[in-house]
Amino acid sequence: MSNFWVFGYGSLMWNPGFDHLRAEQAFLRGAHRSLCVYSWVHRGTQERPGLVFGLDNGGACRGIAYQVAEEIWPQTLDYLRAREQATMVYKEHWHHIELDGGDKVEALVYMVDHSHPQYAGALPLEKQLDIVTGAIGKSGANPEYIINTADHLEEMGIPDTNLAWLAARLKDL
What is the 8-class DSSP label of residue 128? Predict the structure, then answer.
């Protein structure tokens, strides 16, 4: 059995992009999902940044843990670094997470770097809406990212009232 796990909390939940042996809802303590990263590549540009999720300090986060086969771990890690580290706004960390089945495993997580210029911090919802609306990057439109993540969290039974509010406004536009 492989001991390589990746914790997804944003687009990795609905678009992991790598092969995995198993995917299971999981719980991470000590960090929370936050729309706190200015996107200069995937969902915006430096001239017109978007917003994407980061794991920020404190609280807890529900997401999806992916178990990756040992023989493909090096390629998976290369893929994740290319995807998540395009501008080095995240730091790789290993954190203990609890799978819904009760098992506790150590997983690779991408935590936001507070010292990076793309760190947006906690923004008011109206400001988030203003930033997200119209932002487009190499992976597509920023509203699509927000709506997909909100819809996936809802399907998984994970409440996020702020994200639901934002997604509802974006769907109305």
Answer: H
- The Cα–Cα gap between 23 and 42 comes to 24
Query: Which of these, 112, 149, 133, lies nearest to 37 by C-alpha position?
Result: 112
For the cut 70, the answer to whether the pLDDT of residue 1 exceeds it is no
Task: Record the tokens describing residue 156, joined without a space.
Answer: 């998984």
Each residue's pLDDT tens digit, 30-83:
999 999 999 999 999 999 999 999 999 999 999 999 999 999 999 999 999 999
**Whole-prediction pTM value?**
0.93
Rounded to whole angstroms, the Cα distance separating 128 from 43 reads 13
Q: DSSP secondary-structure letter at 171?
A: H
Number of structural domains found in the chain: 1
Query: In the beta sheet, which residues pair with residue 3?
Result: none
Q: What is the pLDDT of residue 173?
A: 84
As a whole number of angstroms, the distance between CA 43 and CA 38 comes to 9
Owning domain of residue 74: 4-172
List the one residue out of 136, 123, 145 whose CA is nearest residue 56. Answer: 123
- How open is the CA angle 113-114-120, to the nearest 5 degrees? 105
Q: Residue 138: what pLDDT?
A: 95
From CA 44, how far away is CA 68, in angstroms rounded?
Answer: 30
What share of residues in the chain are helix, strand, coil (percent, to 5)? 30, 40, 30
Query: Which CATH number is 160's domain given?
Result: 3.10.490.10
